[in-house]
Specification:
Layout: H1 2-19, E1 29-33, E2 37-44, H2 53-56, H3 61-85, H4 91-114, E3 117-127, E4 130-137, H5 139-157, H6 161-176
Antiparallel strand pairs: 1-2, 2-3, 3-4
Helix pairs in contact: 1-4, 3-4, 4-5
């Protein structure tokens, strides 16, 4: 987890410096794959996909930052619980939880220090020559999305506790039968 946080914070710091900040503050953009992926420094005051809880509840920017930080801490607590509650034999579950925590903590650091999250990669989905979904993100977001997706798959693929107990109870009956 600490390695993920370090990668996220180092990549944001290096790329923000390289790009000289956001374009609206005199920074530059760098096309990596023209029309598809570019480097651009961007301030994100919200959470995933730029959604901002302050806007949902008509809060001011300061209260929105506090709410976002509280939601991040609560989510991290839930992931820590999943991590601690899962058996050691479920090693991949621990990896997915660590990725989620790394992403959450990397972005929480930005919120607490800068008042926004520093995003640096812009992916643009183009359909029929029109950009329909420009999405700006950072390494923490990649860790979060990948970790959540893989943890969800792990949970969906794991046997239900009641099904495992039923199978265990039926085994002696079949052996007697």
């Amino acid at each position: 987890m600490a390695g993920g946080v370090a990668v996220d914070l180092a990549s944001k710091t290096l790329l923000w410096s390289y790009l000289a900040g956001p374009p609206d503050a005199g920074g530059r953009t760098v096309d990596f794959l023209p029309g598809f992926l570019r480097l651009v420094a961007s301030r994100n005051p919200g959470i995933v996909f730029g959604m901002n809880p302050a806007d949902w509840f008509s809060l001011g920017a300061g209260a929105g930052q506090v709410l976002t930080a509280v939601l991040t801490v609560l989510t991290a607590g839930l992931i820590l619980y999943v991590f601690a509650d899962s058996p050691r034999s479920r090693g991949w579950t621990h990896v997915w939880c660590a990725l989620i925590l790394a992403g959450a903590l990397g972005n929480l650091y930005d919120r607490l220090v800068y008042g926004y999250v520093r995003d640096v990669f812009q992916f643009t989905l183009t359909v029929g020559g029109k950009a329909v979904w420009p999405f700006v993100f950072n390494a923490a977001d990649v860790f979060l999305v990948f970790g959540v997706a893989m943890l969800a798959l792990a949970i969906l693929r794991s046997p239900r506790p009641d099904a495992a107990a039923e199978a265990h109870a039926e085994a002696p009956a079949r052996e007697r039968g």
